[in-house]
Amino acid sequence: MKYGRMLSVLLLLVFLLPLESCVVTRPQRPGPDFVWVERYTTPAGVVVYGHWKYVGPPQRHRVWVPGHYNRHGRWVSGHWKYR
């Protein structure tokens, strides 16, 4: 009986854990002056993942760098850059 219960729990975990990776959430909003840009594909076929875009007033001594791909092809999340 104990072996059957353990087997059923193991099978349940095997089938349910892959479903957890299907949930897609957006990262926390960096501030009130940001809007979410949905994922899109450029005419060249490059997929740009969803990211936050700054739409507020200019900030003194810093600029918002939107999410982008770096030269190695890795996604860099949006961040503030100090001038």
Dominant shape: elongated
Question: What's the average pLDDT?
Answer: 82
Low-pLDDT segments: none
Q: What share of residues is helical?
A: 10-25%
Task: State the separation between the terminal residues, measured CA to CA.
Answer: 67 Å
Helix/strand/pairing category: alpha+beta
* Series of secondary-structure elements, N-terminal to C-terminal: HEEEEEEEE
Main β-sheet, in a few words? 2 strands, antiparallel
Global Rg: 21 Å
Question: How many DSSP H or I helices?
Answer: 1
* Order of adjacent strands in the largest pleated sheet: 1-4
Instruction: Tell me the fraction of residues in β-strands, as a range.
Output: 25-35%
What is the number of E strands?
Answer: 8
Task: Tell me about this structure.
Helices cover 23% and strands 29% of the residues. The chain has 83 residues and is α+β, with helices and mostly antiparallel strands. It has a domain at 25-82. Strands 1-4 form a two-stranded antiparallel sheet. Strands 2-3 form a two-stranded antiparallel ribbon. Strands 5-8 form a two-stranded antiparallel sheet. The mean pLDDT is 82.
Short description:
The chain is α+β, with helices and mostly antiparallel strands and 83 residues long.
